[in-house]
Design goal:
Number of strands: 5
Order of helices and strands: HHHHHHEHHHHHHEHHHHEHEEH
Shape: globular
């Protein structure tokens, strides 16, 4: 495995200029493709809300499945929001910022604050010395062993699937996004205030149409399903067995992209709903590539195709990965700790 990793790093470093030339061809936004993606994402999302309204007079058992389907389109709306934040969806910066704000309101996410935090994620993904913002809490084996009992409990709780994929998404989109980070700039803080105001107005308008109880129930279902799917995608993109982590002095941008971001090979329908974000290795290599060009870029360069795909079935194995083992250079589970303790006891007896 170590030889394979070293070979891949040498290949990536040797092909640096080559991949830069390749990705440059796909960084130019296509106006009509972008417009069409807005139409086939936002319009169905709005239509499903209309259908939910009409179905309420019949049965909640019709409205709730429609809300779950709407959540799928909201994931796609978030990908548009995400591309606007990178300035890659439209050529016009103003168009990206306007659409980013609107889609941010729909996804309960303040545009400028999220853009700032996400840029930090891209600049530090895979850097062991810059963990803590825009990533999933990850400890090394040694850090966990040296942690206090309370910190170990908090870490295990944070890594519990129910907390990570059900509670955390609701907390993130409903509560955390309502407040700005203490380190955020003036524009980022203002974006939170404007987003909160727009979300409040949207919620008030929808409540007046649906009734507050019906709206809150349906909005919670949409946010919970979409948020859980989004957090799952983000988790798989950076939490797989042979993921890349290095200390800052040895950290390499190309390796962090091609080894530290997964190629999540999803069935076509899921790839469509997730806006091609499964080609995450390409996205981290060049965030300026709009989502509708990611697959073409991946197929254009043999180097990119050497990245081992994570399939939908194999991705569930990532639920067992909890800690980064600096010795083996891979993510391991808690079972690995029990093995270490047995080895330590055997060494003590020997």
């Amino acid at each position: 495995m170590e030889k394979t990793r070293e070979f891949a790093q040498n290949e990536q470093q040797g092909s640096c200029s080559a991949w830069k030339e390749i990705v440059a061809k796909y960084q130019t936004p296509a106006h009509w493709r972008a417009v069409w993606q807005v139409v086939n994402s936002v319009v169905p999302y709005a239509t499903l809300w209309a259908l939910m309204y009409w179905s309420l007079s019949v049965s909640y058992w019709i409205a709730i499945p429609l809300a779950i389907l709407a959540a799928g389109f909201l994931v796609r709306v978030f990908i548009i929001f995400h591309d606007c934040g990178h300035g890659s969806f439209f050529k016009s910066r103003l168009a990206n910022d306007i659409l980013g704000f609107v889609t941010g309101v729909l996804t309960f996410t303040p545009y400028y604050l999220w853009r700032w935090e996400h840029s930090i994620h891209h600049a530090s993904s895979g850097d062991l010395d810059k963990r803590g913002l825009g990533d999933v809490w990850t400890l090394t084996v040694q850090e966990y062993l040296e942690a206090s009992r309370w910190k170990k409990f908090a870490y295990r709780l944070a890594r519990n699937p129910i907390v990570l994929f059900v509670i955390a998404p609701l907390f993130l989109f409903l509560i955390k996004h309502r407040f700005a980070s203490a380190k955020a700039g003036k524009r980022e803080r203002l974006s939170v205030q404007w987003a909160n105001l727009a979300i409040l107005l949207m919620a008030a308008g929808m409540s007046s149409v649906f009734g507050i109880e019906a709206y809150v129930l349906l909005q919670l279902i949409v946010l919970m399903v979409a948020g859980s799917a989004g957090v799952w995608l983000f988790y798989i993109q950076h939490q797989f067995e042979d993921v890349y982590w290095e200390h800052h002095g040895q950290w390499d941008y190309t390796a962090a992209a091609l080894q530290g971001s997964s190629f999540y090979k999803l069935p076509r329908i899921l790839q469509w709903f997730s806006g091609n974000i499964g080609f995450h290795h390409i996205h981290h290599l060049s965030p300026r590539i709009p989502n509708y060009n990611l697959e073409k870029c991946h197929d254009a360069e043999p180097l990119f195709q050497t990245v081992k795909p994570v399939t939908l079935f194999s991705s569930f194995k990532s639920l067992t990965f909890r800690l980064w083992d600096e010795q083996q250079r891979k993510l391991v589970g808690y079972r690995h700790l029990r093995m270490l303790r047995r080895q330590q006891k055997q060494a003590a007896r020997g």
